[in-house]
Structures are given as C-alpha cells and as structure tokens.
Amino acid sequence: MTAGARYLSVLLAIAGLALALILGLNLALNARALGGAEALQLASAWQQQTRGVTYAPPITASRRFKALRLAERLPDINAVAFGSSTAWGITTDALPAQYRLYNIASTGNPLTSIIGEIEYLQQHHPGRLQWMVVPLEWAIGGLYDRTPPPARDLAPAAVLAEAVQSSVSPYRRLQDALSYPKVLNLVKTLQTIAGGPQPLAAARSLFFDVAGAPYRCADGALARDFDAVKLGQCAGFRHDGSWSFGGEKRLTVAQAAALSRAAAAHSSKYSRALCATGGEPNPEYLSRLERAARNIRQSGGDLLFILPPLVPGLEQTMTADPANRACLMRTRQALQEWAQRIGATVLDAGRAERYGCKAEEFLDEHHAYPECYRRVMDFYFRTQREGRALPGLLQP
To answer: Following DSSP, what letter does each residue of 307-347 receive, concatenated?
Structure first.
C-alpha cells in the first residue's frame, strides 16, 4: 500500500469513527427526549421529594406529567388552574392564602379537553377541590371550536399506559440523528459540558442516565433536566405546576407593537380564530361549563372563568378592524348573558395593559409571565373583597 493510500485509509477511519460517535451520542439524546413511563415516574417522584423544577419529556405531552403530579398533590390542594401553556403563568402565590393551587395546564390543551378534565375531577374527586380557574381563550380559538369534549382519564395508570415511546422507524431515527440541526446541537452541548466544572460526570449523566444531575436556578430553586433540550436553563414546572420560564425571552415594546399589527391582519391566526364562527362561542361548551359551575357550588366551592391576558396593544389593534371588533363584541355579549344567567364571573383580562401589565411581562402575543397574572388576580380578589365581582364580565 502506498503512502497516499495509507493516508486516505487513516482519514476514512477517523471520519468513520467521528460519524459513529456522532450517531451514537445523538441516538442516546433522542431516546432520552422521547421520554417514556420510567422518565415520567422518576421526574414526578423527584419533584414530589424535592419541590424542584423539572418536567418529563417530551414537553409536547406535558399533560401526562401534570396528571401524575396532580395525583400526588391532591391531598394537599383545594384549587386547580386548567388551560394550555397560556395559563402556565398562574402561580399559587397569586391567590389568597386559603387557596392551595396546582396548575394542571398543559401544552396545547384546548377548551374541549379542559372540559373533559374538569368533569373527570368532579366525578372522581367530588368535594375535594373548592376553587377552579378556567380560561376561555378567544385569541387562539378554543372558545369557538366545535370538537365535542372527550372523556379524560387522569388516573396515574392511564397516563402511564399512554407514555410509550414514539414508533419512529429506525431509518428515520438514523436520518434525524445525522441531520445538521442535531449535529450542531450536539456540538454546542459538548462545548457546554467541556466548559463546566465536572465535564466527565456531566457527560455521563447526559448520555447514559435518565436525567442530569440536580443544579440550582438563578433564584435558588433546585432543578433537574430529564429532557435533552434547554439543559441547565432551569426550564420546567415548579411544584405548584406553573412554568419557570427559565431561558425564555421577554418582549420589548417595539416587538409587542409589531406583533399586535401582525395579529390584526385578516390572514393572522388570531383574526381567523376570532371570526371563525362570527364570534359565537360553542353552546355545548358553555352548557357543560355551566354544569361544572353548578357542581362545584353544591359542595361550597366556586369557579372563575378568565379571558387570558394578551400582550399590551394586541386587542386594541385587532379591534380597530370593524370585522374583528364585531366578532369580539358578539363573544363578549354571549359571555355576558351566559355568565349573568348562571351567576358566574368572567374576568376579562384580554387588554392586559388595563391591569398594569407590560410588554416585558410576555413571552409572545398570548403567553404572560407570572408578574402579569399576579396583577390580574390581585384585581379580581380585590374587587371580590369589595363586593364588586358580580356575575358577568369583569374588567377594570
């Protein structure tokens, strides 16, 4: 063999080893990111023991983790916040001391699914929960959907049975592991590990353990990463079920204004959702929620409906358009009549600026940070103490 051939063979061998290493490490990360029943149970048990910040992957299936946590927390709580990720900013410390809340809101959870969750809890744990927060989201369309509410089973055995890893073909797994974004992410991850205080231990826990080692967040809270993304950023759910917003951005005033202008366009997802039914809420949803309100009152509790906060300026900019304004007026009229008839309060927080919320208290158009939700809840409980929280729409 010539010197050139030997050189080429060495290069090919090195390239092959590097490729095999990249493939093996990314396959290990991908397997961890898919989660499963073991990771789900371990993450829930770890949070129950430490009250730390975490979640079980994948984040797109966070309802399973929330259901397990709810089962653990039920003996200690008397209030629940439902919803999608837009409600993750609702924290127990935003409520008066008599309420011990768990936030069961989960990723992409529409109103039709929320109704199923409420009915499950009222059927299986009657009288235990004395207060509920239920978002009615017009901005992303949940209030107008026509999907019938499904039966939900939040029992631990049911959610663990759901937690099976994705049946992605081996070819697709290999293809994904060698894709440019995954290789780039691996390189950045290895750079982060190499710059840490214990690189070997960090690498072992990342690639071969079900979770990384616990660490401290900037606010002193303990955190642990069971997922393979957002490592070390304190991204996860707190003990009360709210999101930590670790590593997340905050909007500027200019960004909020630009997003509001885009939302006002007839082609935007917000305008299309708002006017999909001319602003008419799904009557079946309102009927089922009326029954839920009646059930909780029979046991001495109550239920608060809320139109979630939107980034300052968004609702005002959207309703400058006559079509959008007509649709939202119809929604408000329908909710006002419904709430007065059933004796419920609907807290209208859509114009978050009325509550003192700022652009920097939002992640995007409709995800508010806990600071904004605290302002909204403070207004509600203050008006309640003053006897001004009457049935119907409530706003400053």
So the answer is: E--B-TTHHHHHTTSHHHHHHHHHHHHHHHHHHHHHT-EEE
Question: Distance (Å, rounded) from C-alpha 52 to C-alpha 216?
Answer: 9
Interacting residues of 46 by C-beta distance below 8 A, sequence separation 6+: 52, 54, 211, 224
Q: For residue 273, which of 127, 227, 281 has the smallest C-alpha distance? A: 281
Element housing 101 (H / E): strand 101-103
Two tokens, residue 160: 């663990």
Structure tokens at 265: 């366009």
**Where does residue 369 rank: exposed (0-12), middle (13-18), buried (19+ CB within 10 A)?**
buried
Task: Return the structure tokens found at 59.
Answer: 């984040």
pLDDT in tens, 86-122: 999 999 999 999 999 999 999 999 999 999 999 999 9
Task: Provide the pairing of β-strand 392-394 with 345-348.
Answer: parallel
pTM: 0.89
What token pair was written down for 36? Answer: 């499963």
Rounded to an integer, what distance in angstroms lies between the CA atom of residue 65 and that of residue 37?
10
Query: Exposed, middle or buried: residue 345 (CB in 10 Å: 0-12, 13-18, 19+)?
Result: buried
